[in-house]
Write a sequence for this structure.
């Protein structure tokens, strides 16, 4: 399978004017953040459209199907939400549209597994008396866990659907699985997971927006002021979304600049 | 003795006579080949050894025996990747343990008795454990990672050795490579799977009968010291050498290797009541078997062969959840499990570092 090394190297010559943000439940914080962003801080050259596809729980099975030049959703709520966002049920190449996919970086399900009561990434396993797991094995686990979303990205690349990826927020300190595991283990799993997915995307020329630095505590956890609510397992709030959307707009503008540059060089 | 008088052969059972036990039998219907010294049905079992040993471990698991795996794969790792990372093959992630010297040193390294000078090998920027060079398919990213994973591994080995009731070891090779500096025995010649070959640092050894017997006795004494009631089940791999480092023809070298290992296993069985010998070697490689269980390359053993071998074993050892075996002297037919060709290679899973030697020969 061949992938383009740069998204901006699309054969299309139209300028990107629409930014569609979609993905799992973390998309809600982005929508809230967009609402909080003053109009004068928004990039008027983008028509920004934001809507979640639905729950990330469906990402653990095949939730889409490539059909010719299009990608068809196999989950009802994804069909409904995508139709509401775009006016049509299938994901297709559009020259003036850039997708920002908020998915594939969420580590909660994997970090909550009982495996990490007896095993841990090697950097933290020894001092905790746990069985050490190598970085390569952690990478395999991450790619397997995100497999369907990574497959979706490959399908989008093959169809010249322009996109980049938005990372999910850092882990919260009151995240429930932390009651049964060391915070060091959770943070290291999260770090290695993000690293593996980042490397996978980078190898394909897919760009991504990491969590804004200002939202990450020195410990590596999400700063409390950016957490959605105390009883929420892992979501960030509108304040986080506002900062992330600022970064998303910057990355979208950069991708458009790369696109224009590539087209002018054609 | 004159005619009419008795002699020791007169009271021997049919299984003692080639004509009745072999010549008049279909090789797939050989019976009473193995008579166990003790039962393993209620034991916690651990295994190590050459490539063939992984079939034994898998067979124990499939039959519901309490087969110990002290380094299981994280369940989140796709099952198709387990073998590539050395998970689920033996009772710990030690990879292929081909020689008795390796086995002894595994114990010594795990218990701090021996700290080899060859701590880590760097090959192309990736780090490898000299004592299990393929355990991480692309090597480790750093020396620190390799050492941390090995420390965790050796802790698991200590746990394994202290807790098994029966330890299964499959002898594989007499040939091996050692450090000239401290005698550390490697599973693979440096410079093949990993590392760099340096004739000033490493030398070839073809361990002889006396050395192998001494190594095994030293290993078993150490094991018994930490695990007083432990039993040993010894087998010899029927898989011929991929390549020899001697000047002999590889077939001649294989004959030396296997016959030496077989002799050691037999003598350990005679010397120690805690030792069992299971004739997996004979059930595949002996002449009555007509090489039917070897793949066309006459080296690899087909799954049909593995099933036949294990059929003989399990006809004598009931699995914990199974019904008792049939009455004494009546053998279930192992051939019921056996296909007669090597066509079952599709489900052949065999992680065998030694096979890597194939790439070094002249084309």
């Amino acid at each position: 399978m061949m992938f383009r090394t740069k998204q901006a190297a699309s054969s299309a010559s139209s300028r990107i004017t629409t930014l569609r943000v979609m993905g799992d439940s973390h998309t809600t914080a982005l929508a809230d953040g967009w609402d909080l962003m003053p109009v004068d801080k928004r990039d008027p050259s983008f028509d920004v459209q934001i809507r979640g596809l639905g729950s990330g729980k469906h990402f653990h099975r095949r939730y889409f199907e490539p059909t010719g030049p299009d990608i068809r959703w196999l989950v009802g709520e994804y069909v409904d939400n995508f139709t509401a966002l775009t006016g049509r049920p299938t994901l297709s190449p559009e020259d003036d549209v850039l997708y920002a996919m908020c998915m594939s970086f969420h580590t909660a399900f994997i970090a909550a597994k009982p495996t990490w009561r007896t095993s841990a990434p090697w950097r933290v396993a020894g001092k905790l008396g746990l069985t050490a797991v190598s970085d390569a094995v952690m990478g395999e686990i991450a790619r397997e866990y995100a497999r369907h979303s990574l497959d979706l990205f490959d399908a989008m690349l093959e169809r010249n659907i322009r996109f980049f990826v938005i990372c999910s927020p850092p882990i919260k300190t009151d995240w429930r699985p932390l009651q049964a595991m060391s915070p060091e283990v959770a943070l290291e799993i999260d770090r290695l997971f993000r690293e593996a997915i980042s490397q996978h995307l980078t190898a394909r020329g897919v760009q991504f927006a990491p969590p804004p630095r200002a939202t990450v505590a020195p410990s590596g956890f999400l700063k409390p002021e950016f957490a959605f609510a105390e009883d929420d397992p892992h979501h960030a709030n509108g304040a986080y979304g506002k900062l992330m959307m600022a970064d998303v707009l910057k990355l979208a503008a950069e991708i458009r600049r790369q696109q224009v540059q590539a087209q002018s060089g054609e | 003795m004159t005619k009419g008088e008795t002699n020791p052969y007169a009271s021997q059972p049919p299984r003692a006579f080639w004509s009745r036990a072999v010549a008049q039998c279909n090789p797939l219907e050989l019976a009473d080949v193995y008579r166990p010294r003790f039962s393993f049905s209620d034991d916690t079992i651990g295994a190590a050894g050459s490539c063939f040993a992984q079939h034994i471990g898998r067979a124990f698991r499939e039959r519901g025996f309490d087969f110990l795996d002290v380094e299981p794969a994280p369940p989140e790792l796709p099952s198709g990747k387990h073998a590539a990372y050395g998970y689920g093959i033996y009772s710990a992630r030690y990879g292929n343990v081909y020689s008795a010297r390796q086995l002894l040193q595994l114990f010594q390294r795990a218990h701090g008795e021996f700290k080899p000078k060859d701590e880590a090998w760097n090959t192309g920027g990736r780090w490898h454990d000299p004592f299990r060079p393929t355990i991480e398919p692309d090597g480790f990213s750093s020396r620190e990672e390799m050492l941390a994973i090995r420390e965790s591994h050796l802790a698991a080995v200590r746990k394994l050795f202290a807790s098994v009731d029966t330890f299964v070891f499959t002898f594989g090779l007499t040939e091996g490579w050692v450090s000239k500096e401290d005698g550390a025995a490697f599973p693979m010649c440096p410079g093949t799977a990993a590392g760099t070959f340096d004739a000033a640092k490493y030398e070839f050894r073809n361990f002889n009968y006396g050395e192998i017997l001494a190594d095994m006795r030293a290993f078993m004494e150490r094991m018994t010291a930490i695990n007083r009631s432990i039993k040993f089940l010894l087998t010899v791999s029927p898989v011929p050498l991929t390549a020899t480092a001697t000047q002999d023809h590889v077939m001649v070298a294989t004959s030396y290797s296997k016959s030496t290992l077989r002799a050691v296993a037999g003598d350990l069985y005679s010397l120690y009541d805690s030792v069992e010998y299971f004739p997996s070697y004979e059930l595949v490689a002996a002449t009555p078997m007509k090489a039917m269980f070897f793949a066309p390359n006459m080296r690899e053993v087909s799954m049909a062969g593995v099933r036949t071998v294990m059929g003989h074993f399990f006809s004598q050892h009931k699995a914990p959840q199974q019904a008792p075996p049939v009455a004494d002297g009546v053998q279930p037919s192992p051939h019921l499990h056996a296909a007669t060709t090597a066509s079952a290679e599709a489900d052949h899973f065999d992680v065998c570092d030694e096979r890597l030697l194939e790439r070094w020969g002249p084309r």
In short: Chain B touches chain A at residues 71, 73-78, 81, 85, 136-138, 140-141, 145, 148-149, 151-153, 156 (CB under 8 Å). The beta strands of chain B are 44-49, 66-67, 121-123, 126-128, 166-171, 175-179, 185-186, 202-206, 231-236, 275-277. The first strand of chain B starts at residue 44 and ends at 49.
